[in-house]
């Protein structure tokens, strides 16, 4: 799995961080998502898929 972020879409809701904190974080200044691991281990894939599903701005792009 490979993850990319469309920062211009991110609204800073932080749902991704709540669901997968090992993979996502937020910038302090504006809350925009920060990708901590673009290719997370298999054990994180379910959390990453859930994070992408709950993102209100659809800013998380997954390539399986």
Oligomer: single chain
Helicity level, as a percent range? 10-25%
Globular, elongated, flat, extended or rod-shaped: what is the shape? globular
Terminal residue distance: 4 Å
Instruction: Quickly give the CATH architecture.
Output: 2-Layer Sandwich
**Residue fraction in strands:** 15-25%
What does this structure look like?
With 64 residues, the chain is an alpha+beta fold. It has a single domain, classed as Alpha-Beta Plaits (2-Layer Sandwich). Helices cover 23% and strands 22% of the residues. It has 2 helices and 4 strands. A hairpin with a 6-residue loop joins strand 2 (24-26) and strand 3 (33-35). The mean pLDDT is 97.
Structure summary:
This protein has two helices and four strands, in the order E-H-E-E-H-E.
Question: What are the SSEs and their pairings?
Answer:
Elements: E1 2-5, H1 15-19, E2 24-26, E3 33-35, H2 45-54, E4 60-63
Antiparallel strand pairs: 1-4, 2-3
List keywords for this structure.
single chain, 64 residues, alpha+beta, Alpha-Beta Plaits, two-stranded antiparallel sheet, 2 helices, 4 strands
């Amino acid at each position: 799995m490979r993850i990319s972020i469309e920062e211009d879409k991110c609204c800073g809701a932080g749902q991704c961080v709540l669901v997968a904190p090992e993979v996502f974080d937020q910038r302090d200044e504006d809350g925009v998502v920060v990708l901590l691991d673009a290719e997370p281990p298999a054990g994180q894939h379910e959390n990453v898929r859930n994070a992408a599903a709950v993102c209100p701005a659809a800013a998380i792009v997954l390539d399986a």
